[in-house]
């Protein structure tokens, strides 16, 4: 991981060093361990807090430089609002608020993980640590010169003081693996497309072998033998050959049906012959956000040794307009045998997913498949950038995704499917065409995918609005958000993992 940030846990009794971070509620009350850490300065600090505009609202912060009577150089008071009402995601955001306040010059930081009502639980302390790491992440690998206001990646040693440091450390271990997975997904999305093309992406996914993940890479010859004509039709216009990567984590019972996650990995999408306008085309380096999420998720599950069998599959291509590129009017035959008339070569993500979904459904017979794809601009018209679009042929799976969406803050909103939409992609020349009409564009895209899932319980997440360029949040200031890793990790751990 690129950040030099270190986060660990110490007991309350450890002396506060460097920059001190404490919490108060919206009555501006501090807990007892906090008052103790403030020592003789407690009364002065409380007076300063009371005299300021600071109201202790959850996530707000007050900065006091060189507070008299305190050995630390800087004191940051973070508002926790009404501590009893804090949910897991709110605590994660408090961690984010801390990382938002500490700067490059704060090399040593002590956080007193106590709310006015009492010490934080080990899980809450772990969430503070996760929130700090998520918010602190910054992608600046390609900046050779850094300006002053261009605060570089945090370089701090953060000690989180808790009642039971060993318990907090234990609680943080799996969460830390998930944070690593989110950061891995963000890295992949942020990387430029001349660096991250299908073969390089496949190589990075293969690094998961170190964690015990089985990784199989299908090259063009292998995909040709499998008759993946829909995916290959997209990739034929690029100098970079396509790849499909199948990752398998066997943490569950031997022979138990796996769960499966499938990602769209269009490393760059020009639109192909149906070329896109040039404004913002550079954003299309993020058209592999679904695949990035699947790789980050596999990392998280393997690193925390999830007790479940999982298949992760990603289709990696580059959609380019060269002399060998596919044309509107072409008819391709997918691995399923169904034929597809190409109407618009910019509707390529569904062509890639069609073959990968079919492959996973046939070959791995999963309990369910969830695919993630930066699939349509239409989903942003419908939902903006705060919810991913959810489409599913299974109410239970849709309900579960909705629940974990709320608990993780990676929200989804269910959209409809139905035969009236499905018939819009019937073609006069082939079994189907790759686009419907302008209206309901994210729905007809989902209908297309559904034709390739067989009878497998399935959900499709259209993450075009959430995977990249989404508004900065309390726990993310990176262009690539890593959306979906925490969501799907929670789906697995809540509903599909064997209990110890
Ligand atoms: Mn496209
Ligand atoms: Zn695309």
UniProtKB/TrEMBL annotation:
<feature type="binding site">
    <location>
        <position position="346"/>
    </location>
    <ligand>
        <name>Mn(2+) 1</name>
    </ligand>
</feature>
<comment type="similarity">
    <text>Belongs to the peptidase M17 family.</text>
</comment>
<protein>
    <recommendedName>
        <fullName>Probable cytosol aminopeptidase</fullName>
        <ecNumber>3.4.11.1</ecNumber>
        <ecNumber>3.4.11.10</ecNumber>
    </recommendedName>
</protein>
<dbReference type="InterPro" id="IPR011356">
    <property type="entry name" value="Leucine_aapep/pepB"/>
</dbReference>
<keyword id="KW-0031">Aminopeptidase</keyword>
<dbReference type="InterPro" id="IPR000819">
    <property type="entry name" value="Peptidase_M17_C"/>
</dbReference>
<feature type="active site">
    <location>
        <position position="276"/>
    </location>
</feature>
<dbReference type="Pfam" id="PF02789">
    <property type="entry name" value="Peptidase_M17_N"/>
</dbReference>
<dbReference type="InterPro" id="IPR008283">
    <property type="entry name" value="Peptidase_M17_N"/>
</dbReference>
<dbReference type="GO" id="GO:0006508">
    <property type="term" value="P:proteolysis"/>
</dbReference>
<feature type="binding site">
    <location>
        <position position="287"/>
    </location>
    <ligand>
        <name>Mn(2+) 2</name>
    </ligand>
</feature>
<keyword id="KW-0464">Manganese</keyword>
<feature type="binding site">
    <location>
        <position position="348"/>
    </location>
    <ligand>
        <name>Mn(2+) 1</name>
    </ligand>
</feature>
<dbReference type="Pfam" id="PF00883">
    <property type="entry name" value="Peptidase_M17"/>
</dbReference>
<keyword id="KW-0645">Protease</keyword>
<keyword id="KW-0963">Cytoplasm</keyword>
<dbReference type="InterPro" id="IPR043472">
    <property type="entry name" value="Macro_dom-like"/>
</dbReference>
<dbReference type="GO" id="GO:0005737">
    <property type="term" value="C:cytoplasm"/>
</dbReference>
<feature type="active site">
    <location>
        <position position="350"/>
    </location>
</feature>
<dbReference type="GO" id="GO:0030145">
    <property type="term" value="F:manganese ion binding"/>
</dbReference>
<feature type="binding site">
    <location>
        <position position="348"/>
    </location>
    <ligand>
        <name>Mn(2+) 2</name>
    </ligand>
</feature>
<feature type="binding site">
    <location>
        <position position="269"/>
    </location>
    <ligand>
        <name>Mn(2+) 1</name>
    </ligand>
</feature>
<dbReference type="InterPro" id="IPR023042">
    <property type="entry name" value="Peptidase_M17_leu_NH2_pept"/>
</dbReference>
<keyword id="KW-0479">Metal-binding</keyword>
<feature type="binding site">
    <location>
        <position position="264"/>
    </location>
    <ligand>
        <name>Mn(2+) 2</name>
    </ligand>
</feature>
<keyword id="KW-0378">Hydrolase</keyword>
<feature type="domain" description="Cytosol aminopeptidase">
    <location>
        <begin position="344"/>
        <end position="351"/>
    </location>
</feature>
<comment type="function">
    <text>Presumably involved in the processing and regular turnover of intracellular proteins. Catalyzes the removal of unsubstituted N-terminal amino acids from various peptides.</text>
</comment>
<dbReference type="GO" id="GO:0070006">
    <property type="term" value="F:metalloaminopeptidase activity"/>
</dbReference>
<feature type="binding site">
    <location>
        <position position="269"/>
    </location>
    <ligand>
        <name>Mn(2+) 2</name>
    </ligand>
</feature>
């Amino acid at each position: 991981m690129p950040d030099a940030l270190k986060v660990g846990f110490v007991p309350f009794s450890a002396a506060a060093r460097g920059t001190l971070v404490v919490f108060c509620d919206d009555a501006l009350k501090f807990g007892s361990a906090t008052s103790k850490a403030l020592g003789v300065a407690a009364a002065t600090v409380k007076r300063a807090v009371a005299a300021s505009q600071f109201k202790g609202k959850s996530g707000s912060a007050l900065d006091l430089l060189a507070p008299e009577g305190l050995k630390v150089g800087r004191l940051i008071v973070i508002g926790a609002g009404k501590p009893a009402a804090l949910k897991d995601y709110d605590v994660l955001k408090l961690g984010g608020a801390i990382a938002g306040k500490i700067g490059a010059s704060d090399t040593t930081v002590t956080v007193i993980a106590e709310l006015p009502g009492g010490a934080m639980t080990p899980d809450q302390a772990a969430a503070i640590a996760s929130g700090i790491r998520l918010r602190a992440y910054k992608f600046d690998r390609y900046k050779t010169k850094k300006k002053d206001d261009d605060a570089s990646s945090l370089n701090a040693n953060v000690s989180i003081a808790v009642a039971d440091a060993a318990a907090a450390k234990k609680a943080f271990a799996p969460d830390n693996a998930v944070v690593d997975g989110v950061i891995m997904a963000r890295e992949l999305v942020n990387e430029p497309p001349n660096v991250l093309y299908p073969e390089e992406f496949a190589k990075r996914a293969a690094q998961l072998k170190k964690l015990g993940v089985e990784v199989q890479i299908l090259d063009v010859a292998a995909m040709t033998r499998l008759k993946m004509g829909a995916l290959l039709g997209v990739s034929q216009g690029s100098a970079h050959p396509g790849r499909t990567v199948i990752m398998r984590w066997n943490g569950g019972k031997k022979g138990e049906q796996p769960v499966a996650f499938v990602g769209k990995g269009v490393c760059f999408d020009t639109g192909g012959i149906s070329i896109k306008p040039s404004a913002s085309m550079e954003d299309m380096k993020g058209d592999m956000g679904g695949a990035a999420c699947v790789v980050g998720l596999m990392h998280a599950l393997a690193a925390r040794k999830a007790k479940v069998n999982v298949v992760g599959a990603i289709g990696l291509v580059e959609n380019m307009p060269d002399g060998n590129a596919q044309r509107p009017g072409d008819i391709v035959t997918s691995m399923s045998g169904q034929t597809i008339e190409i109407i618009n070569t910019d509707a390529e993500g569904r062509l890639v997913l069609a073959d990968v979904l079919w492959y996973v459904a046939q070959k791995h017979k999963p309990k369910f498949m969830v695919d993630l794809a930066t699939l349509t601009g239409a989903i942003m018209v419908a939902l903006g950038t705060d919810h991913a679009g959810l489409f599913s042929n299974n109410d239970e799976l849709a309900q579960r995704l909705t629940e974990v969406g709320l608990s993780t803050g990676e929200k989804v909103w269910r959209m409809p499917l139905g035969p009236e939409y499905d018939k819009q992609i019937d073609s006069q020349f082939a079994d189907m065409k790759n686009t419907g009409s302008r209206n309901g564009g994210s729905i007809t895209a989902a209908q297309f995918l559904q034709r390739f899932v067989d009878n497998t319980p399935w959900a499709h997440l259209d993450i075009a609005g959430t995977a990249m360029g989404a508004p900065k949040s309390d726990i993310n200031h990176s262009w690539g958000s890593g959306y979906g890793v925490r969501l799907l990790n929670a789906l697995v751990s809540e509903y599909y993992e064997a209990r110890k």
